[in-house]
């Protein structure tokens, strides 16, 4: 089978072998995912399996740690002690069930900080931020980040008031960085951006805002291009509920929201990122071992 690209640009003939290697590799993985994961879309929903997910009687926490000898969930809820072990499910998956307390409240209080502690097969010990954390907070005594169990009770969950606007005939996109959305020398918040900046964007005639640096990044100066927590919004600007408020406010103004997710720019941080999550330098991501979430360049809300 020929590739049209070689007809368009004949200079690529010099690296035809490398291009075909990538094309064939893509086709092979696409077929594997179709056969074993019911396609790419389902494969990309690893967040429904990993991280903290509700069960009938509480929560279950899963992490993908192929090189782990043993693992523990540690945090404020258990005094940061190795008293909550994870069980090996095989294929690199580790999990622990977290049943509710007798009064029906979660075993781990909402907004409490935690990490996963891993003993790797070489005997090394590693404290890591759970890869599917919905929020991470910086400990300013160490400048490192901890994962946060972000499961607000129903009365504290943000409830959307506005439906997504209808698809416009043409997009007029305003690119913005929430943290820079203030005339004051500080990191602006999601709420401030929603209340002060979105109305101005609307008045200027834009029908879409593209938000930069949404995913958590330990180094603010990287402009969001060294992602440390892939499923957590940048905490310097607020909480997930406050980000929802921003999106909802935009929708109420008839503005679509694009979130620029640069997952390919993973940080090399090990203490507050996912690098060397299980003590190895090749842990993320290996679809042969798990249904871990795939990543895309951008998404829309």
Question: How would you sum up this structure, described in words?
Answer:
This protein has a domain at 156-260: 2-Layer Sandwich (Transcription Regulator spoIIAA), CATH 3.30.750. It is built from 5 helices and 15 strands. Strands 3, 6, 7, 8 and 9 form a 5-stranded antiparallel beta sheet that branches. The chain is 19% helix and 26% strand. Helix 4 (190-203) packs parallel to helix 5 (240-252). It has helices at 4-8, 16-37, 40-43, 190-203, 240-252; strands at residues 51-55, 58-64, 68-75, 87-90, 93-99, 112-120, 125-128, 136-139, 144-149, 173-177, 208-212, 215-216, 229-233, 256-260, 298-300. It is α+β, with helices and mostly antiparallel strands. A hairpin with a 2-residue loop joins strand 1 (51-55) and strand 2. Residues 50-133 form the Glycoside hydrolase family 13 N-terminal domain. This is 1,4-alpha-glucan branching enzyme. Residues 198-269 form the Glycosyl hydrolase family 13 catalytic domain. InterPro entries: GH, GH13_cat_dom, Glyco_hydro_13_N, Ig-like_fold, Ig_E-set. Pfam families: Alpha-amylase, CBM_48.
Features:
5-stranded antiparallel β-sheet, Transcription Regulator spoIIAA, 4-stranded antiparallel β-sheet, globular, 301 residues, alpha+beta, single chain, disordered C terminus
């Amino acid at each position: 089978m020929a590739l049209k690209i070689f007809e368009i640009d004949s200079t690529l003939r010099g690296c035809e072998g490398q291009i075909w290697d990538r094309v064939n590799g893509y086709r092979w993985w696409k077929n594997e995912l179709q056969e074993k994961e019911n396609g790419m879309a389902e494969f990309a929903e690893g967040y429904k399996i990993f991280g903290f997910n509700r069960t009938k009687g509480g929560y279950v926490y899963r992490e993908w740690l192929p090189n782990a000898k043993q693992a523990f969930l540690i945090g404020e809820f258990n005094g940061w002690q190795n008293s909550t072990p994870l069980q090996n499910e095989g294929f690199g998956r580790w999990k622990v069930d977290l049943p509710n307390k007798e009064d029906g409240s979660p075993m781990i209080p909402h907004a409490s900080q935690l990490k996963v502690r891993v003993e790797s097969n070489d005997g090394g010990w590693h404290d890591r931020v759970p890869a599917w954390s919905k929020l991470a907070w910086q400990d300013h005594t160490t400048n490192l980040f901890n994962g946060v169990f972000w499961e607000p009770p129903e009365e504290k969950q943000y409830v959307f008031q506005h439906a997504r606007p209808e698809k416009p005939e043409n997009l007029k996109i305003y690119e913005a960085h929430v943290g820079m959305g203030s005339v004051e020398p500080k990191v602006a918040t999601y709420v401030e951006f929603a209340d002060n900046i979105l109305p101005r964007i609307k008045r200027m005639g834009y029908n879409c805002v593209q938000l930069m640096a949404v995913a958590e990044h330990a180094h603010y100066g990287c402009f969001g291009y060294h992602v440390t927590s892939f499923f957590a919004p940048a905490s310097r600007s607020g909480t997930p509920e406050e980000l929802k408020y921003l999106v909802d406010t935009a929708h109420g103004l008839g503005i679509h929201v694009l979130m620029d997710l640069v997952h390919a720019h993973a940080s090399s941080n090990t203490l507050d990122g996912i690098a060397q999550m299980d003590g190895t330098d090749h842990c993320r991501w290996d679809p042969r071992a798990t249904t871990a979430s795939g990543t895309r360049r951008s998404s829309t809300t």
